[in-house]
C-alpha cells in the first residue's frame, strides 16, 4: 500500500503512478516503480492529477520545480489507461 500525495488515500501500488526525482534533480514518471531517487505516488485519475497540479503537490513533495509537461504526460497516461 502507498499513499497518494494529492488525496492522502492509501491504495495498492498498482493503482498509483510513481513520479521520481533523481539525484541530479530531474523529475520523471517511473513506470517500473523501481527507479532510484525520491518518489511520490499519485492516483492515476484525471481529477487527482488536476488537483496535484493546482495545489503544486509534487513540487512540495519532491522539493523541485515541476515542468507543466509532466502533468500533460500524466494526463495522457490516464487517457491511455481508459482505452
Automatic annotation (TrEMBL):
This is YlxR family protein. Gene3D superfamilies: YlxR-like (3.30.1230.10). NCBIfam families: RNA_bind_RnpM. InterPro entries: YlxR, YlxR-like_sf, YlxR_dom. Residues 2-74 form the YlxR domain. It comes from the Bacteria. Pfam families: YlxR.
Amino acid at each position: 500500500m502507498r499513499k497518494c500525495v494529492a488525496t492522502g488515500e492509501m491504495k495498492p501500488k498498482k493503482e498509483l503512478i510513481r513520479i521520481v526525482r533523481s539525484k541530479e534533480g530531474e523529475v520523471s514518471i517511473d513506470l517500473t516503480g523501481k527507479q532510484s531517487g525520491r518518489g511520490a505516488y499519485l492516483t492515476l485519475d484525471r481529477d487527482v492529477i488536476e488537483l496535484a497540479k493546482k495545489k503544486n503537490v509534487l513540487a512540495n513533495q519532491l522539493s523541485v520545480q515541476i515542468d507543466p509537461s509532466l502533468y500533460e504526460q500524466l494526463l495522457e497516461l490516464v487517457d491511455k489507461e481508459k482505452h
